[in-house]
Amino acid sequence: MNLTLIIQRLNRNSVFKFLSSVKLAVPLMIIIIGSVAAGTIFESLYNASYARLAVYGSSWFWLLMVLLWLNIFAAMMSRYPWKKRHLGFVITHIGMLTLLFGGFITSQWGIDGSLRIEEGRANSRVELSDLMVAYQWEDSPSLQSVPFSAGLSEKSGGELSSVNDAFSHLFQIERYVPFAQVERSYAAKTGDANAPVSLSFILRSRFFNVSEWLHSRDNPEMQLGPAHLKLIVDDEMTAREPQSPRPSQSSHPPLSSRPSQSSSPSQLSEPAGQSNPRLVIQDAESKEEPKKKLLSVKLVDLQRKAVSVKGVEIALKTRFQRAVVSNNKLTEGPSDGVENPALELALKRGGESHREVVYAKFPGFSLNAKGNFGLSFSYEGADATSESTPEESASGTSSGELPPGHPPMTGAMGGGEGAAMGSGGPAGNTIEFHVRRNSTQQARVVLIKNAQKVGEKILKEGEAYETPWMGMTLFVASIVAGAEPVIQVRAVNPERGRDLAPGALLIRPAGGQETHWLSQGESKELTIAGKGVHVFFGNQMLELPFELKLVKFSKQDYPGTGTAMSYESLVTVSTDGSLHNVSMNEPLKYQGYTFYQASYQLFEGQPPATILSVNKDPGRPVKYCGSLILALGIIIFTLMRSRVYTSFAQRRTST
Amino acid sequence: MIHMIHLIFGALLAPAQEPHFHELARGSAEVPTAPTMSSAAHAPETVDASVPPERALQELIAQGQKIAIEPVRRTAVSQNGRIKPVDTLARESVLLLTGSYERFGLKPVQLYFALASTPSAPWAPVVEVRDAKLRQRLGYLKEKRFFSAAELEASPLIELVQPLMKNQEESGRLSEEEKKVMETFSQLNLIRQIILGENFIHAVDFSFLKPHTSGSAEGHGAATEVASQASDYLQQLRGDARQANLLAPALVETSRRQEAPQIFQHYLGTLDSEIFYNDARPFLWASLIALLAGLLLSLDITRQKLTAKAVPWLYLVTLLPLVLGISLRVYITQFAPVTNMFTTMLWVSLGVLIFSAILYYLYRNSLVSGVMLIGTGLILMLTEQIPLILSPDLDPLVAVLRSNFWLSTHVTTITISYAAFTIAMLLGNVALVRSLMPGDHTQFFHQYAHYAYRMIQLGCFLLSVGIILGGVWADYSWGRFWGWDPKETWALIADMGFLTLLHARITGWVKSFMLLALSPVAYLLVIMAWYGVNFILATGLHSYGFSSGGALMVGIFVGLQLLIFALALTKFFMSPRPAI
Question: Which residues of A touch B205 (CB under 8 A)?
Answer without folding.
Answer: 350, 352
